[in-house]
Write a structure and sequence with these properties.
By secondary structure, the chain is an alpha/beta fold. It has one domain: Rossmann fold. The chain contains eight helices and ten strands. The strands form two sheets. It has a six-stranded mixed beta sheet with strand order 6-7-8-3-9-10, with helices on both faces. Strands 2-1-4-5 form a four-stranded antiparallel beta sheet, with helices on one face. Helix 4 crosses helix 5. The longest helix is centred in the last third of the chain and has 17 residues. It starts with a strand and ends with a helix.
């Protein structure tokens, strides 16, 4: 089942004739099926974060269009777009983006509360997801009272609790130490398998990318190469390094 489809999508900044134009993405087309865990890699300025911003409706493409669950996102009006973003997209950011004045529990259930779900339904969803991600004991703590790894787990719970069509993760391990990074990647793999969640993850970290089923490499706003994970994880890891060395990865 197809979850995401892009058709010749481009993004150009600086449309004014007096300002210098910068093409961030050039006619990108690809499809993502339900349950896929895909990594997006490329050197700094290649267009990978621009791509994520467009898919999350944080920005609009200059040309082209894309579909999420067969819905033409570009055709949605402002109200429809807000509803679509709330119901169909989960976000996991490098900086967690948790509200410091709310407990982890309140942060996680916020999307459901804003959507008008009843309290009993919210508690049931929270209980299951908190148990599965191992943060039940810290739900009543505030973000500043827990570790970065626990904050990122809470952010992952918040992204998942609405049962979105796709989860967009932007450098999710960027602010974590090696142990917390590995824990989060194992969690994302668990979410991908247990919930059949579709994940698109932008990363510069080869170790993080090796957890994906497929890697799309972007160069100068275009898809340069694709790699698929096989049975040999070390071989996949080495192949990612080889491509990134050509692209000038960080």
């Amino acid at each position: 089942m197809q979850i995401l489809k892009l058709e010749n999508m481009s993004k150009t900044y600086g449309k004014n004739k007096k300002s210098k134009q910068y093409i961030a993405l050039r006619n990108i087309s690809f499809e993502v099926k339900k349950g896929e865990f895909i990594g997006v890699m490329g050197a700094s300025g290649s267009g990978k974060t621009t791509l994520l911003n467009l898919l999350g409706s944080i920005d609009k493409p200059t040309t082209g269009r894309f579909f999420i669950a067969n819905k033409d996102v570009i055709a949605l009006n402002k109200k429809q777009l807000a509803k679509h973003r709330m119901e169909n997209i989960g976000f996991i950011f490098q900086d967690y983006n948790l509200l410091e004045t709310m407990t982890l529990k309140e942060n996680i259930i916020l999307p459901l509360a804003l959507s008008g779900h009843n309290p009993k339904s919210i508690e049931q969803k929270l209980k299951k997801i908190a148990e599965n991600t191992g943060i039940t004991k810290v739900l009543d703590k505030y973000p500043y009272e827990v570790s970065g790894g626990e904050q990122q787990r809470a952010a992952a719970c918040r992204a998942l609790i609405t049962n979105p069509k796709i989860i967009l993760a932007d450098e999710p391990t960027g602010n974590l130490d090696s142990k917390s990074s590995k824990d989060l990647l194992n969690l994302l793999s668990f979410i991908n398998e247990e919930y059949e969640a579709t994940i698109l993850m932008v990363t510069h970290d080869v170790f993080a990318a090796s957890y994906c089923q497929k890697i799309m490499f972007i160069r100068d706003g275009e898809i340069y190469n694709e790699l698929y994970s096989g049975k040999d994880k070390k071989e996949f890891f080495d192949s990612i390094i080889d491509v990134m060395s050509v692209l000038g990865g960080e």
